[in-house]
Amino acid sequence: MNTVVIIGGGASGLMAALELLKHNIQVTIIEAKNRLGGRICTSNKGGFSQPVETGAEFIHGNLPLTLSLLDEAGIAYHSFNDKMVHIEKGQLKQESGLDHYWNKLMKQMAALKHDMPLNDFLNSFFSDSKYADLRTSVKSFANGFDLADASVASTKSLYQEWNKEMKDQYRIKEGYERLIQYLETECRQRGCLIYTDCCAKKISWRKNEVNILTMCSRIFKADKVMLTVPLSILHATSNSQYYVEFEPLIPEHIVAAGNIGFGNVIKIMLEFTEELAKERIKHAGFFLTNEIIPTWWNQLPLNNTILTGWVGGEKVTSLKDNTDEDLLKIALHSLSNAFHVPFSDLTTKLKAYKIANWYKEPHIHGGYSFNTIKSVEAKKILRKPVNDTIFFSGEALYEGSPGGTVEAALSSGKETATLLLKTLQ
Ligand SMILES: Cc1cc2nc3c(=O)[nH]c(=O)nc-3n(C[C@H](O)[C@H](O)[C@H](O)COP(=O)(O)OP(=O)(O)OC[C@H]3O[C@@H](n4cnc5c(N)ncnc54)[C@H](O)[C@@H]3O)c2cc1C
To answer: Which stretches of the chain score pLDDT less than 50?
Structure first.
């Protein structure tokens, strides 16, 4: 029987495992954390009135693989209020340069022949002073939501993401972890061995033979190995405790991984004893502000008083080393300004909170990938197995859109498993 070890038990690793198990491959998953799911992490702790998503939360569109798995598993999902408003001091604000010039921006992005970093694109086509506000808001949009660094981010790739109409978006009321539980059950029922608290440290290999040494000195042997670890792990240098060593080295693939971007994010979940938004802004689901924690959303149409704050990209750099208590204070100050509610009211009405600082999250160290202008080539390399023995998978390898998502991770897992199966025939 052919044997495969999958390193990483997130959406991609579990999906790949299931696909291989369906073809009678003996699969072992080794996961560094004490839980499966990786960047899917639903929290049921901390006194919230319902589960909160510290990682992935939304299904961005009618995404075929995610929705078919949810349907197969009988997991309910619902659409939500995605109306976005700009607010300041509790009042609706004028539209930004981004809203004003959005169509012009999209047209220019569509017409771009040769890809270039977003900064260069804006400086080339929107250099006039009347576009100053547009330049700032486009960069902060790319940074905040795509976690993309404008000095290297691919303009063509951002266009692909932004040009998609996101009409249908969904949430899973019981939490994304239900999807992970479903995949885990399906895998175990087919005989998959799953080890948590098991961190791969060194991969010694030759064609169709791998030995994987873990931090706790276990050795796993298999014909092939599939790495589904976040990009941050492949970016790690040999002095990092998270570095995975290859013997012999695989420099082409590691350099390629370095050519795909990986952004940071901090997510803050707060629940209050009562509704904070004033009547005028109550109808919206998402609130964009100029505060340190700039983006907030509620759970409409669900009737609860949970608010989620989001800060992504470069802004995380100055915040990432704060303690959770400091981040909570910063978040409450941001909300107090944006919603125009006294800080002291917020602290007395605060019922539950959870800070998810993904920069500090062991074995993950960041949010999700973004495409640089070198990513197309880099993904081609990473998607090619090393000697039909070492395979890579994960959200960062997905070539479609939307990237950096659960759908991207599941699709990549399935594709890589199919590719691996071909090497067995
Ligand atoms: C805050 C946040 C919000 C997000 N929001 C959304 C959203 O709303 N919608 C959406 O679709 N996507 C969202 N995403 C992205 C989505 O969560 C990811 O794209 C997806 O879950 C990645 O899955 P993966 O399997 O590729 O990687 P991961 O989930 O990161 O799995 C990789 C696993 O590898 C493990 N690992 C690392 N090193 C080792 C090692 N040496 N040995 C063994 N195991 C190791 C890690 O612990 C991890 O469990 C969000 C992500 C974050 C962080």
So the answer is: none
